[in-house]
Amino acid sequence: MMAARFSSLPLEIGGTKHPWLAGVFLLGLCLLVLCAYRVYLHPLAHVPGPLAAKCSWLWLHYHAYVGDECTRIRRLHEKYGPVVRVAPNEVDIADGGAIAPIYSAKTDLVKPPHYSKFAVDAHATVFSTLETADRSARLRAVMPLFSASGVRESKAAIDDCVAEFVTLLKTQAESRQVVDVLNLAEAFACDVTTAHLFGDSYGALKETVAPFSAAGYLDFFLSPGRFFYMPTATWAVLEWLAAVLFPNKHIEHSIVAVNSYLDRLLKSSKTKPSSYQGRLLSQGVPALETAAECKDSIFAGGYFIGVVVARILWLLVRNPDRYAALRRELLDSKTSSDGGRINDQSLPYLQSVVKEGLRLSMPSPARLPRIVSTGGLVVQGYRLPPGTNVGIAALQLHLNPDVFPEPEQFLPERWEHPTPEMRRDWVPFGMGVRSCIGRGLSNVVILEAIKAVVEADLLAGARAVQDKIEVKEWTISKLKEKEILLAWS
Asked: Which Gene Ontology molecular function entries are recorded, alphabetically (predicted)?
């Protein structure tokens, strides 16, 4: 009877009646077997997670593309615990105790090929290179610029950029117009980054048309994040097709502007050996690769510092009691009258405001994966085999209510007596040996900018136009509205 039942099916696997159906049947059978293997027999089968993520990469690809990856995975952690399988070979950890075994220099877990999408003009940079050893020589050359003493030497240049930023914000506030503080803060960040590193400011704050000319380039640099987990070769083809089929004149003009600035910079006879580009060129780094590193730095400084400064201004306007407390500290401090020292530690509430702003801003909110090396890795009782991509997302740590009570609230006071877990899990600049090399510079610039704005009382009478700031949770987050608006009455 069973044989008769199968013989009545409208296809013949080995015949010619419906050969295409036979192909579909075999393909479906193969996919079913593959899914069964990944769910029940794969080395990661013991790690909890949703069935869709265990079977296929499509679940992770989709949520990365639409920009809600971190939020969705956060819900998975609430359901399954601190270790979750989010793709056939990808594991997400929501436990700050795993930072050291994953990101420390001792374990030396390398970056997976995902990061190569952030290469600039097909050149690997300090950020996108996969092997730690590959970037060592370049890091040694430029690290003096990011040291505390290197930043102090640029105090005059930083002060000039801060003063220009404050003047422009004051002018726009006094005009009672709605101000896009994101565009203004990114222009400031672009100028202060280039002035410090290259010895030649980009000049974004002097431009009279908004958005400033490099803004499109900063926006363009975010695009690989939505395709982060896609094979790099596939992504390269899609990127080329998108450029051909859907050209964006704003971004094209912005890239031309940045290229023109760097071309002038690198061909200048006044290039200082102590500058970022001078140090790289003196190490024998070819001009095209030096230009790529410079572009990477313009993006990193311009976007990261700009977003954080704008978000903190918005948070202070939304929390007038915190703004008043910060202003009282600055007015009461002797250093506020004489200019103070750069990154002055005598202003604890200012330090707390910036720490809390960095916690909530999270320019890089998503998981930063590493490849488990030979010997495997044990995390929270789960053994992860070699070759597994494993990582921790800043969003999972920064919004963990067990470490940061009321995690979505702006509470600078929480940093008056931080717990060891708070210090460990505060990772706005990344984690471990591959954390952001510009964290010292960024922290100083953000502190100085917020200090100057509050001292001048520029946020008095301001209101936030947006009730909330929503982002695409890519590798480097992108604001959905591409603006942060404040209005003065």
From this structure: heme binding; iron ion binding; monooxygenase activity; oxidoreductase activity, acting on paired donors, with incorporation or reduction of molecular oxygen
Report pLDDT digits (tens) over 314-330. 999 999 999 999 999 99
Q: Find the helix or strand (DSSP H, E) in which 390 lies.
A: strand 389-392
Find the largest Cα–Cα distance for the chain: 97
Rounded Cα gap, residues 315 and 369, in angstroms:
30
pLDDT at 17 over 70: no
Residue 388 lies in a domain: yes
Q: Which residue has the tokens 């053994």?
A: 383
**Residue position matching structure tokens 């059978």:** 29
Instruction: Answer whether 266's CB lies under 8 Å from 287's CB.
Output: yes
- Inter-residue contact 224 to 303 (CB < 8 Å): no
Can you tell me the distance from the alpha carbon of 225 to that of 66, in angstroms, rounded to the nearest whole number? 10
- Can you give the residue range of the structural domain that contains 424? 46-488
In tens, the pLDDT along 147-157 reads 999 999 999 99
Contacts of 341 (CB under 8 A, 6+ apart): 335
**In-domain check, residue 26:** no
The answer as to whether 299 is a domain residue is yes
- Confirm if 359 and 429 have CB atoms less than 8 A apart: no
Residues in Cβ contact with 441 at an 8 Å cutoff, skipping those fewer than 6 apart: 145, 146, 151, 193, 196, 301
C-alpha span between 175 and 168 (Å, rounded): 11
Residue 436, annotated as binding a ligand: yes
Is there a contact between 368 and 391 (Cβ–Cβ < 8 Å)?
Answer: yes
Of the candidates 389, 329, 334, which has an alpha carbon nearest to the alpha carbon of residue 353? 329
pLDDT above 70: residue 239: yes
Tokens of 269: 């006879």
Total tally of structural domains belonging to the chain: 1
- Asked whether the CA dihedral 360, 364, 365, 370 is positive or negative, the reply is negative
Assess contact for 281 and 287: CB atoms under 8 A: yes
**What does the block give as tokens for 458?**
């520029």
Both tokens of 155, joined, read: 């105090």
Q: Which residues contact 66 (CB under 8 A, 6 or more apart)?
A: 472
Report how far residue 291's alpha carbon sits from residue 43's, in angstroms, rounded to the nearest whole number: 43
Please indicate, yes or no, if residue 28 is contained in any of the structural domains.
no
Q: Name the one residue in this structure whose structure tokens are 């020292």.
A: 341
Name the strand (E) or helix (H) holding 395: helix 394-398
At 120, which CATH number?
A: 1.10.630.10
Model pTM above 0.90? yes
